[in-house]
Amino acid sequence: MKKKIATILLLAIISLQVYNIYAIQRFPKPEFESGHTQPPTVTPDPRAQALDILDTFVLVAALSVVTWLVIKKRSRKGVFWMSVFAVLYFGFFREGCICSVGSLQNITLALFNPEYSIPLTAIAFFILPIVYTLFFGRTFCAGVCPLGTLQDIFALKPMSIKTWLEKVLGIIPFIYLGLAILYAATSTDFIICRYDPFVGFFRFDATFMMFSIGGVLLLTGIFIARPYCRFLCPYGALLNLVSRFSKKHITITPTECIQCRLCEDSCPFEAIDKPVLLKEKEERPIAVRRFLMYTIIIPVLILIGGYTGSQFHENLASVNTKVRLANELLNETNYGETEQEAFEITAFKAAGQSKEELYNEVAAIIKKFYIGGWILGGFIGLVFGLTLVSLTIFKYREDYTPNKGTCLSCARCVDYCPVLPEVKTELQ
Predict the structure, then answer these.
(1) Is residue 142 in some structural domain?
(2) What is the pLDDT of residue 92?
(3) What is the Cα–Cα distance from 264 to 236, expressed in whole angstroms?
(4) How many beta carbons lie within 10 A of that of residue 286, not counting itself?
(5) Is the per-residue pLDDT at 70 higher than 70?
(6) 225 with 372, same domain?
(7) What is the pTM of this model?
(8) Number of domains in the chain
(9) Sign of CA dihedral 265, 266, 268, 272
(10) Which end of the chain has less Cβ packing within 10 Å, N or C?
(11) For residues 388 and 399, is the Cβ–Cβ distance under 8 A?
(12) For residue 34, is it within any domain?
């Protein structure tokens, strides 16, 4: 009985395969006059999901090891070799993707576009470094991020720059962060990935322009340590904010500072706050006037920034492909059809959508950019105002301490401290 059932099933399967061979396609392959041939069907690599799991596991392991090296072992040498591993694995082996820096855009797009299905790996790569930063400081930047660690290897003769210049250039990552969120939220572009200066190195396919930009940054990094991390990286700007609340952060000295000043110029990132000894306490009326001035200036800067951003919303929206298409259609209507029609216009006409539908859709996109321009400009105004405040406020400090926001937890400074860790001995 079982043999008969098996025979019937086998005959049914063979019949189905024969039918499929001679069946007519419901949607035949398109024919192209240009000689274009239909590309072969690509089957997804079965190892892709396994590699995603492996990447997440390696990320957790790397974050844990670097955090242990920074907080417990206080080993600069260990952090350096983890940096080499990060460049080799997350950089050249995984070709810079997926990375935590670019995952910021995936998260944003998922929040504003419910149709977008975000990979779980992108969520993990976005959240895990933030969690570690919240508890232990920017250990991700220290020896896990391939973009940062590649620059760190090139920091051979770092020089210091002026404090005010460091503060001014430090505003740029927040501007980049705002633009990246705006373009991702409007489904326009992933500008962080598009203009990543080092991913072309990892994939050996950089355009001449991006190769030049990456080369300039690496050469600059010999003297100005980690220029991309400090003055461009949008994810670094986010970690800057989170790290300020870190529960357990790296310290220069393992116990009590002896004021030897050996670590004073040890940080190539200008992330060490030096002692500030105030001889006389500031009078209360002066402090109140300064506080009132800041409470007025910062809201004004937010309003000015928001208004300025809203005025540039059309320029910001011009990057969107649908907005560009609408502009090309308007130019075609105003000046007549050109001899060689743009490919985008040809594809639009073939799709069957009316111009009115496209214009209505573009109007909604531009409205989003108008609102986004207000938010982006206000955010930049807030950052600029807080930066001004940080330049004028002096905090009383007795020791040399890492600045939790800008410190990259690279552990360079710990080698300069002559104080030895306390050795706990058991009582006899």
Answers:
(1) yes
(2) 92
(3) 24
(4) 9
(5) yes
(6) no
(7) 0.82
(8) 2
(9) negative
(10) C
(11) no
(12) no
Q: How far is CA 369 from CA 153, 251, 372, in A?
A: 40, 43, 5
Same domain, 72 and 182: yes
Cβ neighbours of residue 34 closer than 8 Å, sequence gap 6 or more: none
Amino acid at 233: C
Residues 70 and 167 in one domain: yes
The answer to whether residues 217 and 321 belong to one domain is: no
Do 402 and 250 touch, CB atoms closer than 8 A?
yes
In a domain, 8, yes or no: no
CA-to-CA distance for 327 and 188, rounded, in angstroms?
Answer: 16
CA-atom Rg of the chain in angstroms:
28
Query: What distance in Å separates the CA atoms of residue 90 and residue 156, rounded to the nearest whole number?
Result: 22
Give me the half-sphere count of Cα atoms (radius 13 Å) on the Cβ side of residue 58.
Answer: 22
Rounded to whole angstroms, the Cα distance separating 293 from 392 reads: 12
CA distance 234 to 58: 23
> Do 73 and 197 belong together in one domain?
yes
CA nearest 113: which of 178, 181, 192? 181
For residue 162, what are the domain limits? Answer: 53-277+403-416
pLDDT digits (tens, 9 = 90+) for 9-37: 545 544 544 444 444 444 445 454 555 55
pLDDT tens, residue by residue, 218-250? 999 999 999 999 999 999 999 999 999 998 999
Q: Which two tokens stand for residue 290?
A: 């300064």
Provide the sign of the torsion angle of the four alpha carbons 221, 225, 228, 231, taken in this order: negative
Scanning the structure block, which residue is given the tokens 């007025």? 296
For residues 62 and 163, membership in a common domain is answered with: yes
Q: How far apart are CA 150 and CA 87, in angstroms?
A: 6
SS3 letters across 388-415: HHHHHCCCCECCCEECCCCCCCCCCHHH
Structure tokens at 205: 């396919």
CA distance 328 to 275: 60
Does residue 184 sit in the same domain as residue 86? yes
